[in-house]
Amino acid sequence: MGFWSPMHLHGFQCPTPDSRVDPGIFFHEALTTLSAIDWVARHHAFPDARIAVMCDNQNTVDMFNSLHARSPVLNPILLTAVDLMVEFNFKLRVFWIKGEHNRVADALSHFDNDVALDLEPSLIISTFAPPRLTLGPQRK
After folding, report:
1. How confident is the model over 48-78, as pLDDT tens digits?
2. How distant, in Å, are the alpha carbons of 28, 34, 90, 106, 123 from that of 85?
3. Is residue 17 part of a domain?
4. Are the C-beta atoms of 9 and 122 separated by less than 8 Å?
C-alpha cells in the first residue's frame, strides 16, 4: 500500500496487512485512501479545510464520495473517515485519476523506491501504519 503528497514531497508505504481472510484489493485501496486522509487530517488540516485525495480506483472514489460501501467489511473504513472529518472539521473529496498519472503512489505500493525516486527525485519515503478502524456500535 502506498500514497504520497506532491505538495510535501513525502511518500508513504506499508505492506499489505496479514489476514486469515483476504479482503481483496478494493479493501486495501480504501484502507490506503483512509490512511492518506488520516495523515493529512492529523498533520496538515485546519478547521474548515478542504482535503482532496486523488485515487486511480473508481470503486474507492465512489465509496468515499457517496459514503456508501458495497460490502459491510468496508463500513469501518467509512466510519473512521467520517470520525476524522468530524474530529478535525474538514471537508473531503476523492477524485479519480488515470493510473498512468498515479505512478509514484503505484511504485511506493510495490516498494519500488528506485522508480518512485526516479519519478520524483526529492521524495522523502517513510512507512505508515493504517489507522485503527472505528467498528461502530457493539451488538448486544
Report:
1. 899 999 999 999 999 999 999 989 999 999 9
2. 20, 11, 5, 26, 27
3. no
4. yes
pLDDT bracket for residue 41 (50, 70, 90) = very high
Question: pTM higher than 0.85, yes or no?
Answer: yes
Q: CATH no. for residue 115? A: 3.30.420.10
Q: How far apart are CA 37 and CA 51, in angstroms?
A: 8
* pLDDT band for position 88 (cuts 50, 70, 90): very high
89 neighbors 48 (Cβ within 8 angstroms)? yes
Total domain count, the chain: 1
Contact criterion met (CB below 8 Å) for 51 and 34: no
Alpha-carbon gap, residue 7 to 59, rounded angstroms:
25
CB 34 within 8 A of CB 80: yes
